[in-house]
Write a sequence for this structure.
């Protein structure tokens, strides 16, 4: 089961902090970040807008990930808005 965590503004806007999906639900294998993002964006227009690559960063198992990074059935995926420091 893939555990998906939402942080910051994403958690507030999408009104959820956690989602669990069986890798079988996501279709084509092997799965990567871009495919997971597309699956989640298909939920509705709000998810499509806020989960696009320009509005959210992704970490897989607490390591920053690219769109091509693979996702396995027991991974933890975190999505969060870009942050700036000062």
């Amino acid at each position: 089961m893939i555990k998906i965590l939402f942080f910051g503004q994403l958690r507030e806007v999408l009104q959820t902090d956690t989602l669990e999906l069986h890798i079988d639900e996501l279709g084509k294998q092997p799965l990567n970040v871009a495919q997971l993002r597309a699956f989640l964006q298909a939920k509705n227009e709000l998810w499509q807008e806020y989960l696009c690559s320009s509005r959210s960063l992704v970490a897989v198992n607490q390591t920053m990930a690219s769109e091509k990074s693979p996702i396995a059935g027991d991974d933890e995926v975190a999505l969060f808005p870009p942050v700036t420091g000062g």
